[in-house]
Structure formats: C-alpha cells, structure tokens
Amino acid sequence: MADSHAVSEVIGQSNAMRPPGRMRAPGGTWANLRLYIGRQAASPARYVAEQLLFALVGWVPTVLGIGLRALLYRLILRMDGVAAIENGVRLRFASHIWLGRGVYIDHGVYLHACPNGIEIGAGTFVMHGAELHVYNFRGIPHSGIKIGRHCLISEYNVLRGQGGITIGDNVYTAPLVQMLAVDHVYDDPTRPIIEQGITAQGIIIEDNAWIGAGAIILDGVRVGKGAVVGAGAVVAEDVPPHTVVAGVPAKVVKRIEGPATSPRGTVYF
C-alpha cells in the first residue's frame, strides 16, 4: 500500500511543479515503472540489489535474522558497528541510510531516505510502525532526518523530513508523535493547493527533550533543550528550553526549575 501511495504522490508532485493548465497525464507503463524505481533506490542496479537482499534475508525472524541482516545489510547501507534490524523493516534508498553502533530498528519500521539521507545515532531505538520519510524530489537542499545518540522514537511516530528534521541526543518520543517538516502554500483561492507548491523550513528538537503521546510538531519549530511537549499538543511556535507546553495551539504551562518546585503526581501527558 505504501509503495502504491508513493507512485500516486510522485505523479502528484510532478504535476504540482507545472503551471496551471499543463498538468501532465500519466505516461505509459514503462515510463511509470522507471519513475517508480527512481523513487525507490539511487539507481536501477541498486534497486535490484537491495530488493534481492530484502527477499533473501529481510523476512528471517529471531536473532538469526538480526545477525544475518547485521552482516549482509552492510552491502547496501552504512553501519557503524553492529545494528539490530528486525524482520519486516522496509528500507528505500538504503544507500542513503546510516546507522550508528547499537541502533535497534523494530519490526514494521519504514525508512525512506531519498535524497539527503537518514542518520540514526548510536544506541537509538526506533520502535514498531514508525515511519521516517524524507521523500524529497523537489531539490530542497536541507531535506533529511538526523537523530542523535540514545534516543527513543516510539511506536507509530511519523517524521516527514522534506525540510529537514534534526533531533539531538537523549530525546524520547511517546507513541503517535508526528513531526512534519513540510507545509503547503494555499494563498491563492483561484488555484488548487497542489499547484501552489510547498514550504519546508525544518524542525529541530534539542537534547533531552520529551515529546508526549500524539503531539504534532509543525514545520519551522525548534523545541528547546530539556523541554517537554504534552500529549496531544499541536506545536506551531518555538518551545523555550526547560519548559512544559500543552494544548492546541501549544502554550507554556510550566517552567522546569528543579525538583524543589516540581510536585509529585503532576501529570502533563
């Protein structure tokens, strides 16, 4: 399903770059096939090699599969030391993925690294169902996803890195967090949104931040060092360091000043 969606998105993005009245109709079968392959790997040869390796060992369960992938996936991606990749992990543009020592990639994770790559620092865990998706074919120079050391990206997080996402060290996210480093232009009411282009400023999450369940971080936001984002918050503005924000839109509800001013039992997320 995700690959089928990718084909539709590719066609939509290509059309979005054209002026009104010049929407490109889908080409023939071979043209669409080449377009699809070009959105999956750095070259047709890389596509064949990566898909062959996925077919051979991508499905193997248990520690046997983890060991095989730790050994053989070095042929298609950059790995510093040993990283653990569970079965059922989907990789696209594997040649643009870098994993630090001790990284753990859980079952069902989807990494699409085109074109500037995904970098995951040593000791970081990416949990079941998370999607780290760069998918930039518009030439945005600062696209990509970079995650620091000893982070936890929890279940079913979605990170869209067209404008670039940079996450520091020791950052934890709860399930269902979204970081969306891209936005659509919609200023002209006479034109469809798909024809008006996008903006992509990027998102920065500084060291030791904690993002609560279901929070949404919008494009252009910086979350400061040691900050906490409450569950379900929609963050559209920068979050100062060592503060707690909550609500829609998110606002500062607390300054983090030390244990003496933090009563037990207070729950913000």
Give an overview in words.
With 269 residues, the protein is α/β, with parallel strands linked by helices. The protein has one domain (2-257): Hexapeptide repeat proteins (UDP N-Acetylglucosamine Acyltransferase, domain 1, 3 Solenoid). It has four helices and 25 strands. The strands form five sheets. A seven-stranded parallel β-sheet has the order 1-4-7-10-13-18-21, with no helix packed on it. Strands 3-6-9-12-15-20-23 form a seven-stranded parallel β-sheet, with no helix packed on it. The radius of gyration is 20 Å and the shape is flat.
Task: List the defining traits of the structure above.
single chain, seven-stranded parallel β-sheet, 4 helices, alpha/beta, UDP N-Acetylglucosamine Acyltransferase, domain 1, 19% helix, disordered N terminus, 25 strands, 269 residues
What is the secondary structure topology, with strand pairs?
Elements: H1 2-16, H2 29-38, H3 44-57, H4 62-72, E1 78-79, E2 84-85, E3 90-92, E4 97-99, E5 104-105, E6 110-112, E7 118-120, E8 125-126, E9 131-133, E10 145-147, E11 152-153, E12 158-160, E13 165-167, E14 172-173, E15 178-180, E16 183-184, E17 198-199, E18 203-205, E19 210-211, E20 216-218, E21 222-223, E22 228-229, E23 234-235, E24 243-246, E25 251-255
Parallel strand pairs: 1-4, 2-5, 3-6, 4-7, 5-8, 6-9, 7-10, 8-11, 9-12, 10-13, 12-15, 13-18, 14-19, 15-20, 18-21, 19-22, 20-23, 22-24
Antiparallel strand pairs: 16-17, 24-25
